[in-house]
């Protein structure tokens, strides 16, 4: 419990730091959103209009501590301001629309990759020297070595453009009505399959090889030999004694990988025109949509911190040494 | 002695490692019998093959190690004739082992209780979990650890406590034979003393035979009734432990080891090491493996391997003892 509270405190502190940075950075930059807007109109804008924009974009001449407090308040309530490009749509609306797609597509791809890779790693370590053990690492590493976007382009070209087996872009068909209906779900799965396959193929290798090597190390440990000697069933030996310990470094890698999925898959979403966070972020950057960029960065940062927190908690559950150390020190 | 029931019988046992230079025997033509309720010591330098022999008996050899010759019988059963299922049931129920590394023999992510109950339930299929926990508690009483330690993880226990838990797990199923592979190496002398006393006490109570492996001469002499001395994979001498003192006649290597023991009380005895270093197993000297380091070697030692010669209550593999055979039996 103490461990949990420690980590929770740390989580809040980090989020606060991220919020503060996000507050400070744009204010250190010259100009303000309204002036940018003004520049777009090339000076053909009455001062009243400028004032109106400034108000709308939340720009004020108040002293910065008050701005800061207002900012924190609006962040906590989810008011990230308006997007320039989609004006007058709220930034939070755009994020709310694109985030589920990214989380769904990449979250599932990564989870499948982690789980399948780890299980496969356990298996080939147990059957080391076997056929699977000699083939799997080579095949998976070949895919790992291929740049993700390139594989994506190849897939789009051969499987979508030339052969029309899969759709080329978007996350669901034009004719489908979003909701919990079967045609829509089928369409989402159909559209998501290629990007899923690309992410899976290019990331699974690390999990297989990592788990395999961890398992090899653990299988040589005295406690595994001891457990084997004392008659523990092979199944329990693999999972509760060997894999249980071998999985710990995997959890750390998973934390790092998960934090990259939200901001880091811009290329995948770009190639497949998949309307996730990455796709929107690229659009926001190219059109200099500062409020949107700011909001997205914030979400990425908070997401990263929260994932780290969850992994810390998970790690504490998995490894009693970590848990107790946190509590006693 | 022959009317007693043999627990462990090693018959011309050789254990080798597959290397690029061919098979290298780490244990070479070993004959050893341990009888019921007997403690036999096994002593030798690092790399002399003690642990390899222990792992071979337990059928826990890994990787490139294999039995190249001979048989191992425990309780009259050939350990290598069993299938894996039989082996899993036999091992630990009949023969157990206390590992050298007290610190790493316990799974760091499981509580003591889980690991003890695992052992018991793996063998006693009819037992309920509660009964197993009760048995585990009794075992902790035997090794004198507070029952509270059940809920602890290994890293929360001291080295001595961990080794006690390992011993408790070893005797969990009342095996007739326990191998103790340097059970106190990682511990300080005070803890070492109390654990050894406890092992002796438990051994008297539970009446199992012990193969006690160590490189500490005085320790083995104290624990065991007979001591086997291992050099380069061979048991070069087998002798009752009370003969292990300066002045008694032994294999030159044994005598060398005895001279190397520091004595706290005596101030006029000089401590001598054995010159040279243990031989490379890949390229053993011809004849007696000890002859390059032997201060009393004669010509025959250089090309003839000595046979086991009965001597006192044991045997010795040394050419110097050959003439005396008649005298002793004479």
Provide an overview of this structure.
The complex is a heterodimer of chains A (329) and B (330). Chain A has 329 residues and is an all-alpha fold. Chain A has one domain (94-328): MetI-like (MetI-like fold), CATH 1.10.3720.10. Chain A contains 15 helices and no strands. Chain A starts with a helix and ends with a helix. The model of chain A has no long low-confidence stretch (mean pLDDT 83). With 330 residues, chain B is of the alpha/beta class. The model of chain B is unreliable at 326-330 (pLDDT under 50). In chain B, strand 4 (65-74) and strand 5 form a beta hairpin. Helix content of chain B is 29%, strand content 24%. The longest helix of chain B is centred in the middle third of the chain and has 18 residues, at 189-206. Chain B has helices spanning 50-57, 84-90, 112-123, 129-142, 159-170, 189-206, 217-223, 252-259, 299-303, 324-329; strands spanning 6-19, 22-35, 39-44, 65-74, 77-78, 95-98, 177-181, 209-214, 226-231, 234-240, 309-311, 314-316. The interface between A and B is medium-sized, with 24 and 30 residues.
